[in-house]
Amino acid sequence: MFSRRRPLVSVVVPVYDVAAYLPACLDSILAQRHRALDVVVVDDGSTDESGAIADRYAERDDRVRVLHVANGGLGAARNVGVAEARGDYLTFADSDDTIPPDAYARLVAAVRKGDADFAVGNILRLEGDLGAEREIRLPWMDGMHAPYVGSIEERPELLGDVFAWNKLFRREFWDAARLTWPERIRYEDQPATTEAYLRAERVAVLDDIVYHWRIRGDGSAITEQRATVADLRDRWRTKQMALDSTRALGSPALQEVFRTQVLPGDMWRYFLLVPGATDEWWALLVAMVQGLWGDDALVRSGLGPAHRLTGWLVTHDRRADAALVMSHLASLGGRPIARADGRLDVPGLDTTSIDPAALALRPHEA
């Protein structure tokens, strides 16, 4: 029988130089229908007014506490917040995003009803100027979040939902599983969430929208970061950490889905950068693809046909050919690459020395 006491939900909010966005974030948290909140704001060495804004919220609402710490990055700030959190449940929010008013109530109810270790819900993306945002549905997230309660072994594709902030954890589970966020590294969400899925006996999945994820600006800064060696090195390391967890804790069937359908999910974004890559970045990309996928070079993956082919070319260190494919794809402006006899046809590409499997189209692609 459930306790009549409304459980306390701790919300950890890392903050760094988001003065323009922080009020909307905190307002959305404090307006939750689930009122029993412990909001732990971690001011991660902000250089703008973010810390002062958080302090003013704490003065007005005793559910808010603010920790001012030296800058340590997102993972470290989350870990600081977790250490100070007092709730029965634990969740996270990035300080430029917002949370729908019923989100925490729905997540708590799902964990309790399903006797789950944590619950995960669907998201919307916010694009556009502050106060005039467009709400964008994400079909790949919609497809992942059909209602379900059970082991990740039965829904391994859910490992593709790597986000920290659309999940609510029982604090007992978080501590027992010894979960933590990697520090001083980008893409820290995937290793931690993968570990959580694998260690949970039961996960509750909701199709409800529980989070609004803001995309700031035009995204060019993200693209510029991906083109750096430091970004690519972090991406390789966090993918390897997640892969190691699946090998240690998952069944062979789950490992196969993770390696072919989940782990490659964002590699196309890196392949797009091949034509303008530096020698050092290209060498690291080759080593990364060879290290994570070996000789099959993403040919069996869930990537699109042009990116499966590029994966094969990267594995075999065929830089000029990979650049040719990606440049041709870019020139088409979103149109598909021509297909001939059930295979990709790229002008200027000598296909006689390429594995036919790397060129092959699947029935729905022909």
Automatic annotation (TrEMBL):
UniProt keyword annotation of Secreted present: no
Pfam families per UniProt: Glycos_transf_2 (PF00535)
InterPro entries reported in the protein's UniProt record: Glyco_trans_2-like (IPR001173), Nucleotide-diphossugar_trans (IPR029044)
The keyword Methyltransferase belongs to this UniProt entry's keyword annotation: no
SUPFAM superfamilies: Nucleotide-diphospho-sugar transferases
Molecular-function GO terms, alphabetical: glycosyltransferase activity
Identification of the protein by name: Beta-1,3-glucosyltransferase
